[in-house]
Amino acid sequence: MKYLRLLYIQVIIGLVFGVVFGFIFPGFAPTGKIMSDIFINMIKMVIAPIIFLTIVLGIAGAGDLKKVGRVGGKGILYFEIVTTFALILGLIVANVYKPGAGLVIHELPKENLEKYTTAAHEVNWGSFISNIVPSNIFESFTKGDLLQILFFAIIFSIALTKLNDKGKKIMAAFESLNVVLFNIIHIVMKLSPVAAFAGMAYTVGKFGFGTLVILGKFMFAVYFTSFIFIFGVLGLIARFYGFSLWKLLVYMKEELLINLGSSSSESVLPNVMGKLEIAGCEKSVVGLIVPTGYSFNLDGTTIYLSLATIFLAQVFHVDLTLMQQLSIVGLLMITSKGAAGVTGSGFIVLTSTLTMLKVIPLEGLALLVGIDRLMSQCRSITNLIGNITATVIIAKSENAVDEDLFKKFVG
């Protein structure tokens, strides 16, 4: 019975019961979605201030602004290299496995794609860059725009380091406030088994298992590619930096399970940051890399995008040349960043990419709308694992890890 007191065991039980309950009582799906959304909103209400305080306390506390620039530069470079690997891996699997080949579509599902195509036209790389600088920081906190909060927090930290003794008093107040916010998170996380149950009940109740039969080959390709990427690409990088990815994932098991149930990596963002610091990663590195990764290091999303693009091309018998596929890689490297932070960004970016390519019918997106929630779960958990791994790697490259603590908690 003592195992039932463990949060991750409770979450697993919630997930299993959610699948069974959603299958038996599909009418519960709308209620399950409401319950899941409430939990995610409870987490989101403290994400913005936690991100801000963590970055300020980390940077101002360290006082090394050169290190901040170096860590940020390393992070962006790492994100670009690894997400490019993810894109290419997706293209390789799509061409070898051919998930769209032989799929006979007599009639496309009747789905309203207008909201996606409208949002896709609004995706713009230039405006994305300019919007990193907030015009109203209070609005940024209200919207929960992580990149704008990150930018403001860095500027605020630099200004705070110049205040000397006055700055220390502000830091002390921020430390106390940060403790309060993390206590709120600990309270909310007690509801995570219920949220996991509700999220899975909604997914199974709404979409059932019929869709899996029709598009099972594509779904298998996405999950299989994500698995290969995590334990192949990320696993090898982790081994190169002297730690076991598997042990790191076991350490983060509660967060991964909650992510699986809620289909939102944001739901565990504060907990992930806290546990990385507990495991010995410096606060300044965690504060910079995790929020930035949530916008730039979307490994799961990029895998989905490359596979989905080739899948739809195969369904409609569009024979893409090697140069066209390489162009898709280059295009996705840009568009996958342009919708960062937008709800349903994976699907919106896919719409945007197909609009630019102009060789694959947009109507094919109706095939993927029905399984987007299931795909979102895969994208979300892969994105989360990618960001957890990236933070440890950048911290180790900076000698910013307390190895004794890391071995104690991760092994």
Notes on the structure:
This protein is an all-alpha fold and 411 residues long. The protein has one domain: Sodium:dicarboxylate symporter (Proton glutamate symport protein), CATH 1.10.3860.10. The protein has 20 helices and no strands. It has helices at residues 7-24, 29-62, 65-97, 114-122, 125-130, 137-143, 146-161, 165-189, 192-207, 210-240, 245-251, 253-262, 269-278, 283-296, 299-315, 322-338, 345-357, 365-369, 372-397, 403-409. Helix 3 (65-97) crosses helix 19. The protein is globular, with a radius of gyration of 21 Å. The chain starts with 6 loop residues before the first helix and ends with a helix.
Second rung of CATH, namely the architecture: Orthogonal Bundle
Rg for CA atoms:
21 Å
Q: Termini distance?
A: 27 Å
- SS content category: mainly alpha
CATH topology: Proton glutamate symport protein
Question: What is the tally of helical segments?
Answer: 20
In total, how many beta strands? 0
Query: What is the count of structural domains?
Result: 1
* Mean pLDDT over all positions: 82
Overall geometry comes to globular
Largest sheet: none
Strand portion, in percent? under 5%
Uncertain residue segments: 339-343
> Fraction of residues in helices?
over 70%
- SSE order, one letter for each helix or strand: HHHHHHHHHHHHHHHHHHHH
User: CATH homologous superfamily, by name?
Assistant: Sodium:dicarboxylate symporter
CATH class: Mainly Alpha
Question: Keyphrases for this structure?
Answer:
Proton glutamate symport protein, single chain, 411 residues, 20 helices, mainly alpha
